[in-house]
Hints:
The complex is a heterotetramer, with two copies of chain A and two copies of chain C.
Chain A: H1 3-17, E1 21-25, H2 41-45, E2 50-52, H3 57-69, E3 73-80, H4 88-95, H5 98-101, E4 111-116, H6 131-135, E5 141-143, H7 148-160, E6 165-170, E7 194-197, E8 202-206, H8 210-225, E9 229-233, E10 236-238, H9 242-252, E11 255-262, H10 267-276, E12 288-293, H11 302-307, H12 312-323
Helix pairs in contact in A: 1-7, 3-4, 8-12
Chain C: H1 14-39, H2 54-61, E1 70-72, H3 78-83, H4 88-95, H5 130-143, E2 149-154, H6 161-172, E3 177-183, E4 186-187, E5 190-191, E6 212-215, H7 221-236, E7 242-247, H8 265-272, H9 276-286, H10 292-314
Parallel strand pairs in C: 1-2, 2-3, 3-7, 6-7
Antiparallel strand pairs in C: 4-5
Helix pairs in contact in C: 1-2, 1-9, 1-10, 2-7, 4-10, 5-6
One thiamine diphosphate sits between chains D (48, 75-76, 124-126, 153-157, 184, 186-188, 254) and A (26, 55, 57, 83, 86).
Amino acid sequence: MSVRDAIIMAMSEEMRRDENVFLMGxxxxxxxxxxxxxxxxxxxFGKERIRDTPISENAISGAAIGAAxxxxxxxxxxxxxxxxxxxxxxxxxxxxxxxxxxxxxxxIPVVFRAAAGGGVGSAAQxxxxxxxxxTHIPGLKVIAPGTPADVKGLLKAAIRDNNPVIxxxxxxxxxxxxxxxxxxxxxxxxxxxxxxxxxxxxxVVTYGRMLERVMKAAEEVHEAEGxxxxxxxxxxxxxxxxxxxxxxxxxxxxxxxxxxxxxxxGFIGEVAATIAESEAFDYLDGRILRLAGEDVPIPYNxxxxxxMIPSVERIRKYILRLVNNR
Amino acid sequence: MSVRDAIIMAMSEEMRRDENVFLMGxxxxxxxxxxxxxxxxxxxFGKERIRDTPISENAISGAAIGAAxxxxxxxxxxxxxxxxxxxxxxxxxxxxxxxxxxxxxxxIPVVFRAAAGGGVGSAAQxxxxxxxxxTHIPGLKVIAPGTPADVKGLLKAAIRDNNPVIxxxxxxxxxxxxxxxxxxxxxxxxxxxxxxxxxxxxxVVTYGRMLERVMKAAEEVHEAEGxxxxxxxxxxxxxxxxxxxxxxxxxxxxxxxxxxxxxxxGFIGEVAATIAESEAFDYLDGRILRLAGEDVPIPYNxxxxxxMIPSVERIRKYILRLVNNR
Amino acid sequence: xAKTSSKKVTDISKEKLLEMHRSMLDIRNFDNKVNxxxxxxxxPGMTHFSIGEEAANVGAVAALEIGSDxxxxxxxxxxxxxxxxxxxxxxxxxxxxxxxxxCKGKGGSMHIADLDGGNLGANGIVGGGMGMAIGxxxxxxxxxxxxxxxxxxxxxxxNEGTFHETLNMASIWKLPVIFYSINNMYGIxxxxxxxxxxxxxxxxxxxxxxxxxxxxxxxxxxxxxxxFEEIVKYVREGNGPVLVESITxxxxxxxxxxxxxxxxxxxxDEWKKKDPILRFEQYLLDNKLVTxxxxxxxxxxxxxxxxxxxxxxxxxxxxxxxxxxxxxxAP
Amino acid sequence: xAKTSSKKVTDISKEKLLEMHRSMLDIRNFDNKVNxxxxxxxxPGMTHFSIGEEAANVGAVAALEIGSDxxxxxxxxxxxxxxxxxxxxxxxxxxxxxxxxxCKGKGGSMHIADLDGGNLGANGIVGGGMGMAIGxxxxxxxxxxxxxxxxxxxxxxxNEGTFHETLNMASIWKLPVIFYSINNMYGIxxxxxxxxxxxxxxxxxxxxxxxxxxxxxxxxxxxxxxxFEEIVKYVREGNGPVLVESITxxxxxxxxxxxxxxxxxxxxDEWKKKDPILRFEQYLLDNKLVTxxxxxxxxxxxxxxxxxxxxxxxxxxxxxxxxxxxxxxAP
Lengths: 326, 326, 331, 331
Ligand SMILES: Cc1ncc(C[n+]2csc(CCOP(=O)(O)OP(=O)(O)O)c2C)c(N)n1
Ligand SMILES: Cc1ncc(C[n+]2csc(CCOP(=O)(O)OP(=O)(O)O)c2C)c(N)n1
Ligand SMILES: [Mg+2]
Ligand SMILES: [Mg+2]
């Protein structure tokens, strides 16, 4: 099943299960979503629950929050994550803080599904991965799965969670295929990393779009040089599963961190800092390496765009550099 | 001279020097700015150049950018940094990327002055330090000085720079006093950290509001225990002066990082990651410690608020912990 | 002194009229008290007072089903909270940052909320409550609760983009929400007349195909109440949103520190002649609904309640340090 | 076939009329070509076509001082760029991501700009150019350049908060800017009639105390041109901003991939009968301004220019990898 279908399945199952759940956003209805992530849902759930909106990101996010405060459970299709800039007040100043400011009263169960990353030739205003911003804000959960099954299990968890969740999807991966449990009770825990591959030589921590490439690189270095890579897939960025990361680094003593977002102040920087201040530091036998998107706006030209994001080849090189202590 | 007066002096000097420079924002005119940072300027420069605006942060930031693209040099008084949420499209998708997207054509010389941090009992929506967001975005410069002199020298540099600059001020420190060069040609370089105190035992890297506390803590541990702290004041966060940080850490082998922003995905995490992936890593003889604002929305109660931000005492404790290798 | 409009006097019970009067007095006394506490340094932080704007607040809230209908408010929310019947002790404790406060001392003046009482909260962001208001209204419409939402904001907020987006969305979805702009003529130091190119903002209702109402004398409690009764009925009947604007004035500065150079003492004094409380008192007396003595008794009761709230707040414990780490996430 | 409005024909030089025709042809041919290249996989990324909307674009731009006045545009910016006289070779190279492109291959279709030619750039964010437009207008006003700015956007953009904020700010500062909404009746799949609660957005001008103009037939080049001439004059004389709306239609899908389920083939065909180019051609012939032969020559010249641009683009080098790291900051 594709990521796209896993998303549709997750939302549809939750909407069948709970009449308070509904989807809103620009062109989610007859158009089926900018990325086809709600194709067919209008037919099943009708206009009230597959709710087309004006192009008004502020009102969309605000209405979602107000609806969530009063008993509904909205899912917002942000479409391109870049457009979330217009939702920042509602997400950061309102949704994240309201319960706290009110001394623990009220709750805001809302999911913002945002299509992150480049890879489709849409240039600098349609290619950003802005997850780090949201991990900086207490009161938000941030999820970035990298397989169709994790997408399904975590999107369902996000919808059932009673807090605002930023849910990253990757526009380059909507067609990515994988096994997906059909069980409507298949829900994954938020806040748990997943060891996608066990290994003793080196730890690679990643999430989201980069998981696929990391897995491929791990496979390649294993086949070519017998290196055993442990791949820690964070899946949830906030709250971060520090334990799993630290345990793995303690085991291997070497760590590479990979994300597609810009390197500077990207989320893997936080992971690096977390390792460097933890007990795992004492087990490190090499620098904590980062491989991330370049610090440039994403260029339109596809050769350049491709070069701005970690490739399987560069991930492989970095793994070998670590293993060979260069 | 106070920070407030240093700001007024910097802006006034630059406005006298270049007729294209002007100030715009809510209540900058007769009110003299929410924090008094333009008191008296209306009288000297008139309404056209000390430009009161409607409460329209999107239009303010957009107009500033458009004016900057076409030959003016606006300074925007954002007032509380928390309100910058309404400016995110203009700053992140427009100002930061336009020159790049246009293949190097055009420039956007605009300064966004934002009052960051808590300390004045204004609760969660008026106390944030959001600098990390902007350091994540290529195309922006981010400056956060911690003394009145640096405020003057760097604000003038920001105004003269041909790129969008996010300039942090700290609402708790507008009254902080210090020597300020009166020379209208006193301009400091953007992108250069400053060693505010030399020492051989331990490096503390900080910026902005926390500098004052770090200096005090350094003084105290020196007097009490003879510990020689090297204080690296970043001053500019983007571009980061990695060299100065790395050299200092190589010298001392121990490093503590301090900022007032929330810890998770705060800017000192990026500094930690930078150290951990650099040659300085090989010189470390202890974990890279971080001391930052807690990961909670800033509470209203002032005792709680105070406890959420690193105190001199906690900074001192962390320094001693590092020095004593605990 | 300007008169209170006496239309419909017979429709309203004496009890209700006295409640409204008491509400206005509570707002006035509460805020005067807080102001003194700020000056004495007992209350920290930024506080925005509703003094002078009592009628504009109470008249609107009184037309609602209190305890059932919903409101969102802004930084200047004391008036609305009190009108909606919040527990004054807890509100005062909140403003002093105490553990017994409405928000356990974590929110303060700008974040007073009373979810059970229908108050979805004050807001420190200008326009910050408008999205929530339409979302809350969407819930009422979908769940067919019959409840309506009043979204309070100032004159300055009308130039925020969120005003436009939320009014438009509410209009196309015919949501049961009243957008209520309390026009006190200034946003901090900025006269509203200098930041819009029309006379009054209520006319912008036309952009959304919804009714726009104007309450020229927002210091006339009965004028506010009567207009709101009519509007509340219209909205509750499912006709969609309405934009209302009332004119009033704040006696004090924008916030606790405000040199006030942007307006003259004469202007302030002129407005004090139109005081909403004195006028309503006169109205009650003129209509023989109360005696001077009754009035004094109500005044006394209100003052006592405020004193009581101060005592409660002062004797309440500070929140514990641990509590700062609680309440971020819902279970 | 609907007629072109013939008002003021005598006021316009034949040369200018032919230029406008050529401009429309260039847009049509250019976009048809790009569409074919997209289908063949030669052009990557998202592209939005102006086919069907040629008159709405060219009529507006032709009323400007080309090379002096300024515009901002949106994602559907090909029409405006070409009308303003951009170098077609460089534009085609940009869309192919080549080093010789308008933006060195870094911007692509959604970021075509021509700062020297007065085009401050297309924009991938709906409403993203509106702030820039008023800022550019502020510069013109402060520097007394006599230039004006036209801010292009779609019907869907009118519900963004930035629309409200920028129109309001422009109105209070009386900035020389024309807000021009090209209403092609849909924002992606969403009919404008379903997302506003009034008939036409131009009426919202009243909220800002500025004139609102309606061009009911935006496929009538002369109607667009005549209206714009009048508006340009008004704005250039310092009377402040204006909101204009024209009705037109896009023949193709929203972007390169669009199943188009939200509208019928009949609707599209109906609009094709009102084709702006065929109508203007007829007008030129009817007024004996050209012969069939002239028309054919212009058509040929336009096609050749587009072919030429493709050749230029195809034979242009890819940008170097290093170039990706350049041009972030101005020196
Ligand atoms: C987004 C945002 N911008 C600016 C401010 C600062 N601010 C607080 S209150 C205020 C004025 C609001 O004026 P108005 O809406 O008329 O309300 P009033 O204070 O007059 O009751 C401003 C500018 C803010 N809190 N939020
Ligand atoms: C802020 C933002 N929201 C959503 C989008 C996605 N989007 C691109 S074009 C478009 C429709 C725009 O409609 P309209 O303004 O009518 O222009 P048209 O495409 O019809 O020319 C949408 C929703 C975007 N690019 N930016
Ligand atoms: Mg006001
Ligand atoms: Mg459209």
